[in-house]
Amino acid sequence: MKDAPINQPRRKDREVKDPAWIQALLQRAPVGVLATSDQDQPFIHINLFVYEGAANVIYFHSAKVGRTPTNLQSNPKVSFGVSEMGRLLPADTALEFSVEFSSVIVFGLVKLVEDRAEAERGLQLLLDKYFPHLQPGRDYRPIQEKELARTAVYRLEIDSWSGKRKKVDEDFPGAFLYPYRETQ
Known about the structure:
Elements: E1 15-16, H1 19-28, E2 32-38, E3 41-47, E4 50-52, E5 57-63, H2 67-74, E6 77-89, E7 98-112, H3 116-130, H4 145-148, E8 151-166, E9 176-177
Antiparallel strand pairs: 1-8, 2-3, 2-6, 4-5, 5-8, 6-7, 6-9, 7-8
């Protein structure tokens, strides 16, 4: 797999190429994992994020000082992942135990959003995703200039992505959702 494209999954039988499926998972996933590096040391960062389909970008934010901004300044190439876990699938042998899942890995470049209007829009998209029932000016004070000055808003420009899914028949014997609960 060394010479394969970075977005090519090993298991072709689990590959999902449908952009609508990939976008839907990016839109509904509650958190994502951003992978950055500093020289030869990899780092992961758990992020709240929002996928904007029209521009095919992901917005997230961080403090202006810290590991994330430092790593992104030295190397803006990243990968970003989201996943969902399905049912756990027991088997007769330990090697055959498995789990249903859906996942997307995104590859691209992260840029600090320097345009004030875009930064405010990116933050508002985040607020709208996680607090859709609350409205600025009605339920909370809208974003202020001094608050915007304290936050770094980033835009991940997606170059490519990879979707994977494992799903088995509904009547799989013994399948259950995590965490396991004994039924009486």
